[in-house]
Design a protein that fits this description.
The protein is of the alpha/beta class and about 350 residues long. The protein has a single domain, classed as TIM Barrel (Alpha-Beta Barrel). The protein has helices at about 5-15, 25-35, 45-55, 70-75, 85-90, 120-130, 150-170, 190-210, 235-250, 265-280, 290-305, 310-325; strands at about 20, 65-70, 95, 100-105, 110-115, 135-140, 175-180, 215-220, 255-260, 285-290. Helix 8 runs parallel beside helix 9 and helix 9 (about 235-250) packs across helix 10.
């Protein structure tokens, strides 16, 4: 482990005006998304779609890194260029999802714990050889009657901390993602309570494992009312609650914070990020690590006719990347959406 190198990578991941694309969908998740647009989920179609994303000219202006899946980091362009090299040659850092998914937590039927620690040291070494500069591990926290439980929060926080330590040992920057789901009818206050309890325990466990915060990126949920809540949160409410929660729980020397969209619409995720950066008062760079909220229009356009719509799909990706780049600087305006190329 070279601490200085890890700090440099982490800082580059949240460089001004830049964010991260989460393209780490498993084959199962790809199946659902491809089914929704009528595209057969073959390995070649997955590869071709990812080449559309990664081959977008100018993407490096707004994107610092891309999170890949195990299949993806081993794939190549039609011309035989490995995806990690394609990205690195553009100045975009390749990353890798390393968890094995969320599984049912014993004696807690409504909650899950993320698995994948077994063999992680060896997998990280292999991914480093393939070009991975950072990694991601996602925990899932659900809000509902009597949950999240202390047991669920503690189990996931401990796993995230052990993962973070193993990453740094391997010279890879860990993205720590304790996702508090927005499914349900909970209030923004309940979201705040669950997010606060989760983050406090996550950072407590990370400290106990000996990982250093300057070489860690937090992938955070926004504090927001559930999708089924009677009162839907405004952008200003989300910005105020999220920043307040982070200031009360996250270490000041954390390298940065990137947000997940968590099922928000493309424009909503961008507007909320913008509101946070316009509000100010954060101790860290606040940027994005979106999957659906940046890929949605790209996949829909590409699905219409793969060969004929590559350029249009890439234009859509570049537009959404630019909108989120502006939002990470507090310079986004909904009026800009009138100029979108899709």
């Amino acid at each position: 482990m070279n601490k200085e190198t890890l700090v440099e990578i982490a800082q580059a991941m949240v460089a001004p005006g830049k964010g991260i694309i989460a393209a780490d969908e498993s084959s199962g998740t790809c199946q659902k998304r491809f089914d929704a647009v009528g595209v057969p989920c073959t390995e070649e179609n997955r590869r071709a779609y990812r080449e559309v994303l990664f081959g977008t000219r100018g993407l490096e202006e707004y994107i610092s890194g891309v999170i890949l899946f195990d299949e993806t980091i081993k794939q190549k362009t039609a011309d035989g260029i490995p995806f990690p090299k394609l990205l690195a040659d553009k100045g975009i850092m390749p990353g890798i999802k390393v968890d094995a998914g969320a599984k049912k937590l014993a004696f807690h039927s409504e909650e899950k714990v993320t698995e994948g620690l077994d063999g992680l040291r060896e997998r990280l070494a292999d991914y480093a050889v393939l070009g991975a500069r950072f990694a991601k591990w996602r925990a899932v926290i659900t809000i509902g009657p009597g949950i999240p439980s202390r047991a669920c929060i503690h189990a996931n926080a401990h796993a995230l901390a052990r993962y973070a330590a193993l990453c740094q040992e391997a010279g890879i920057v860990p993205i720590v993602e304790p996702e508090v789901l927005i499914d349900g009818d909970h209030t923004i206050e309940q979201s705040y309570e669950a997010t606060s309890a989760t983050l406090k325990k996550v950072f407590e466990e990370i400290a106990e494992q000996g990982a250093f915060f300057e070489g860690i990126i937090l992938k955070a949920s926004m504090v927001i009312a559930g999708k089924g809540a009677v009162h839907q949160s405004t952008a200003s409410e989300v910005a105020e609650a999220t920043i307040r929660c982070l200031l009360e729980t996250a270490p000041r020397n954390l390298a940065g914070v990137v947000f997940l969209s968590g099922g928000q619409s493309d424009e909503q995720a961008t507007a909320h990020l913008n509101a946070m950066n316009q509000r100010g008062g954060s101790s860290w760079p606040l940027s994005f690590s979106y999957s659906r909220a940046i890929q949605n229009p790209v996949l829909k356009i590409w699905a219409q006719d793969h060969a004929a719509h590559v350029d249009c799909a890439r234009d859509a990706l570049l537009f959404r990347a630019r909108m989120n780049s502006l939002a990470s600087q507090g310079k986004y305006s909904e009026d800009l959406e009138k100029n979108r190329p899709y």
